[in-house]
Amino acid sequence: MSKVIVVTSGKGGVGKTTTSASVATGLAQKGYKVAVIDFDVGLRNLDLILGVERRVVYDFVNVVQGEANLKQALIRDKRVENLYILAASQTRDKEALTKEGVGQVIEDLKADGFDFIVCDSPAGIEKGAQLALYYADEALIVTNPEVSSVRDSDRILGILQAKSKRAETGQEPIVEHLVLTRYNPERVETGEMLSVEDIVEDVLQIPLLGVVPESEDVLNASNAGTPVIMLEGSDASEAYKDIVDRFLGEEKPHRFLQAEKKGLFKKLFGK
Amino acid sequence: MALLDYLLGQRKQKSATVAKERLQILLAHERSERKAPTYLPAMREEILQVIAKYVEIDAENLQISIDEANGVEVLELNLVLPDEKR
């Protein structure tokens, strides 16, 4: 049974594409056949984060409009077996995607034996974002511990619950997972940043899939066109591996929630 | 100075606490709006017109919401009547 996963957030710049790239890579590393689709028509970036920007010949819009077939447009990742990327179009406007067209592509991917279809949503709540979530079975809500991001996530949750195909046809609702990114335990400890508990228990009230700590490695990885999950030894990589494991049903304690212990001297006189 | 912050900071509310409280209030409001039936704005207008026939009121002062309390849906109508001018 193939599953459609949407990675969404409402707000821009919180880590949707980083999360899409790493989760798709992680699932493929586990041996599943994965397609990751960039829905951000006009502002594609998933190709860049995955380092395949020079290999895009045909894109998602070409397929939807029948100008190319899926086989021609899917870019096979050279590092990870079973990972395929469908880039967004850089030139067309957002109207180029239709509900029927997107549905057909997803059906075709399912028929091709893909286990997971990861939909990287654009920011906002307009058509592109609504199409990205429409066919989803599960959703990763990417949120930063910051007021505007949390509010927008709540907004997107409302749309998932009302405007998805599952909602419209009265099926089981989309399974929601919270992915908290750019988390800074030091600032949480000093009371300057919303904590995991604040967000999960008191505000959004959806199950937590994982916490990704604020990490310099995310920028280093995107500079190199490598999904951060492949940066061995980095905290962000470990966090995304945990997220993939938990998504696949494994029980794992949450990590990266505590600040590193400081010495007494630093505690009293440090910044 | 962390030591000074620590001593002074005890009384001041942390910014994360402020953020949480603001979000809780805001999201409760936005969620109830989202769940509100689509006829609510039109109904509000009509109720306003009826009331306006009898008393002079400011449209801003009428609040209508549908809440759920103990499993019962409650239509709440809140209106502040103006001071009577004599």
Q: What do you see in this structure?
A:
- Chain A is 41% helix and 16% strand.
- Chain A has 13 helices and eight strands.
- Chain A has helices spanning 16-29, 46-49, 60-64, 70-73, 99-111, 127-134, 147-163, 165-168, 185-189, 196-204, 216-224, 235-247, 264-269, and strands at residues 3-8, 34-38, 75-76, 83-86, 116-120, 138-143, 175-183, 208-213.
- Chain A has an eight-stranded mixed sheet with strand order 3-4-2-5-1-6-7-8, sandwiched between helices.
- In chain A, helix 1 crosses helix 12 (235-247).
- Chain B is α+β, with helices and mostly antiparallel strands and 86 residues long.
- Chain B folds into two domains: 1-35, no CATH class; 36-86, Cell Cycle, Chain A (2-Layer Sandwich).
- Chain B contains three helices and two strands; from the N terminus they run H-H-H-E-E.
- Chain B has a two-stranded antiparallel ribbon.
- In chain B, a hairpin with a 2-residue loop joins strand 1 (62-69) and strand 2.
What strand order characterises the main sheet of chain B? 1-2
Share of residues in strands of chain B: 15-25%
Major beta sheet of chain B, specifics?
2 strands, antiparallel
Q: How would you sum up the global shape of chain B?
A: elongated
Q: What is the radius of gyration of chain A computed over CA atoms, rounded to a whole number of angstroms?
A: 18 Å
Main interface: chain pair and counts = A-B, 23 and 18 residues
